[in-house]
Design a protein that fits this description.
By secondary structure, this protein is of the alpha/beta class. The protein is about 30% helix and about 30% strand. The chain has 6 helices and 13 strands. Strands 6-11-8-9-10-5-13 form a 7-stranded mixed sheet, sandwiched between helices. It has a 3-stranded antiparallel sheet with strand order 2-1-3, covered by helices on one side. A 3-stranded parallel sheet has the order 4-12-7, covered by helices on one side. A hairpin with a 3-residue loop joins β9 and β10. α2 packs antiparallel against α3. The longest helix is centred in the middle third of the chain and has 15 residues. The structure holds pimeloyl-AMP and magnesium ion. Magnesium ion binds next to loops.
């Protein structure tokens, strides 16, 4: 019998301020352990409110696809990191001024009043126009994971390369779904966590190009940009990103720097 699949989401806050969140798409057998994992992660932040929701999803709607290869490029500082990201975006078909402006926008805070956005900017790869319906929120990629049978292999491959932070797994899974979205030719991302400087450019040609420095330690800005190729149907792309359940059915190669930074 086909296993049932569930979207499991966690949200923890203290007096309305977001502290920690997570989202998984798992089979019935995994729900319990994933809920415990989320509970442990959330309680570490001492939240005043914690919500975990479990929703069954329609298994017949699941789209499956491959995870891109991960390759890490060594850079000395965030300036060379951003230069590397710029070059990668050009190689993926993003126009130079569009790539430059996306990097600058994330660097100063892409939301209103230079706040971070909750989701991603959706940007016309040729003209630079912002296409997300609500620019404070952005487009959220949700409902994605790896097939239950690949879970352990993915963890092993990441650990072997010293890539143990949960952000890396989450970003790699998110980037896999974004790459599978119709009309998306590239993604640019770095974290909004002041202590986490790494980010990536992901595109079909070279996969997940991990860049250890895209900002300075202490910088609270971060964000995401999804680059959209005109000619595709925007509404379908947004619906795929925000609603269609997606599972990775084939892992990529994982080639970190072997622990060196
Ligand atoms: N969909 C779209 N955009 C999102 C989502 C989502 N589900 N979640 C977060 N964002 C946007 C939002 O603007 C955040 O401010 C920004 O991305 C960064 O989110 O290889 O940790 O959770 O070491 O801080 C990348 C590098 C880490 C991982 C990314 O992102 C690695 C990270 P954060
Ligand atoms: Mg964050």
């Amino acid at each position: 019998m086909e296993s049932r699949y569930y979207s499991v989401r966690m949200h923890a806050d203290r007096d309305g301020t977001h502290l920690s969140g997570a989202e998984r798409l798992v089979s019935e057998e995994q729900v319990e352990s994933v809920v415990i994992e989320m509970l442990q992660r959330a309680t570490g932040h001492a939240p005043s409110s914690l919500k975990i929701s479990i929703d069954e999803i329609d298994g017949s709607r699941i789209v499956r696809g491959a995870m891109p290869n991960l390759v890490e490029v060594p850079v000395d500082d965030y300036r060379s990191g951003r230069d590397r990201a710029f070059q990668a975006l050009l190689a993926s078909g993003v126009a130079p001024e569009v790539a430059q402006s996306a990097i600058e926008t994330i660097a100063r805070g892409a939301g209103p009043g230079h706040a971070n956005m909750r989701g991603a900017m959706l940007i016309d790869a040729r003209k630079g126009e912002r296409l997300e319906p609500v620019s404070a929120r952005g487009v959220r990629a949700t409902r994605m994971d790896v097939e239950p049978g690949l879970e352990d292999a993915l963890t092993r491959n990441l650990v072997r390369q010293g890539l143990i932070h949960h952000r890396i797994r989450e970003a790699l899974v998110l980037a896999s779904k974004v790459l599978a979205a119709p009309g998306i030719i590239a993604e640019l991302c770095w974290s909004d966590d002041p202590g986490y400087t790494a980010g990536y450019v992901c595109a079909p040609g070279f996969g997940y190009l991990r860049i250890p420095h895209l900002k300075e330690v202490g910088d609270p800005h971060g964000g995401r940009a999804f680059f959209f190729m005109p000619g595709f149907k925007l509404a379908e792309t947004i619906r795929f990103l925000e609603e269609t359940p997606f599972l990775i059915n084939k892992l990529g190669l994982i080639a970190g720097s072997g622990g060196k930074k």
